[in-house]
Amino acid sequence: MDTIFLSEVKVQTKLGVPEWERMVEQTIILDIEIGYDLSKACKSDDVADTIDYGAVVSRVRETLKENSFKLVEALAEHLCQLILKEFGALSVKVKVAKPAILPGLKALGVIVQRNK
């Protein structure tokens, strides 16, 4: 299986356990790895034979504007299921990081991996 990766995708969303934290959008950083058979695209050089990376980023931004989450775990699961279902991925690995949320901490987050 081949891997498409999207590294350090910055998105705005409403995320946090306390209700006040979900009242204002905050920046989170995503790393997304998408398992897909790229052999056809490697031969054809045609975007129709792969997953359109721009479409993935646009859809991720759209869904995170429409939804809010208490937990980074739920957000990561939501994105995994969306990419598996809407883009036909064979597997997905999503890393969600909330930067500088606690004093002295660069970031916190989770990594969730799902297969079709």
Descriptive notes:
It is a single chain. By secondary structure, the protein is of the alpha+beta class. The protein has a single domain, classed as GTP Cyclohydrolase I, domain 2 (2-Layer Sandwich), CATH 3.30.1130. The protein is 31% helix and 39% strand. A five-stranded mixed beta sheet has the order 3-1-2-4-5. Strand 4 and strand 5 form a beta hairpin. It is elongated, with a radius of gyration of 15 Å. It starts with a strand and ends with a strand.
The succession of helices and strands, N to C, reads EEHHEHEE
Largest sheet: 5 strands, mixed
Q: What is the CATH top level name?
A: Alpha Beta
> Rg, please?
15 Å
Regions with little confidence, pLDDT below 50 for 5+ residues:
none
* Shape call: elongated
The spatial strand order of the largest sheet comes to 3-1-2-4-5
Brief summary of the model shown:
The protein has helices spanning 39-44, 53-66, 72-87, and strands at 2-15, 26-36, 68-69, 91-99, 107-115. The chain has three helices and five strands.
Explain the layout of strands and helices.
Blueprint: E1 2-15, E2 26-36, H1 39-44, H2 53-66, E3 68-69, H3 72-87, E4 91-99, E5 107-115
Parallel strand pairs: 1-3
Antiparallel strand pairs: 1-2, 2-4, 4-5
Helix pairs in contact: 2-3
List the main descriptive attributes of the protein structure presented here:
5-stranded mixed β-sheet; 39% strand; 116 residues
